[in-house]
Amino acid sequence: MKHSRTEVGRWRMLRQANRRKARWLEAQSRRNMRIHSIRKCLVKRQRQALVFALYDI
After folding, report:
1. Ramachandran region of residue 4, left (φ > 0), alpha (ψ -120 to 50) or beta?
2. Residue among 25, 2, 22, 26 at smallest CA distance from 14
3. 22: alpha, beta or left, given left = phi > 0 and alpha = psi -120 to 50?
4. Whether this model's pTM surpasses 0.70
5. pLDDT digit string (tens) for 5-37?
6. What is the C-alpha to C-alpha distance for residues 39 and 15, in angstroms, rounded to an integer?
């Protein structure tokens, strides 16, 4: 069955929008993971500093 040009165009646009959204979501999660890892690293450093401060006393 042959589909009209407008129909095909609509499907193409929808697929493109979905792909764009998926890509954006993926990028967001990557950014969040980076933020989380940086924060975790900072917390670790603070804890380490506290441990050494306790040993110095």
Report:
1. beta
2. 22
3. alpha
4. no
5. 999 999 999 999 999 999 999 999 988 898 889
6. 36
- Angle (CA) 19 20 21, round 5°: 90
- Token pair, residue 12, equals 């193409």
At 2 the three-state DSSP class reads coil
| Residue 36 structure tokens | 């989380």
In the block, residue with structure tokens 């500093």 = 49
Distances from the Cα of 18 to the Cα of 1, 5, 29, 54, angstroms: 25, 20, 17, 54
**In degrees, to the nearest 5, what angle opens at C-alpha 48 toward C-alphas 43 and 50?**
95
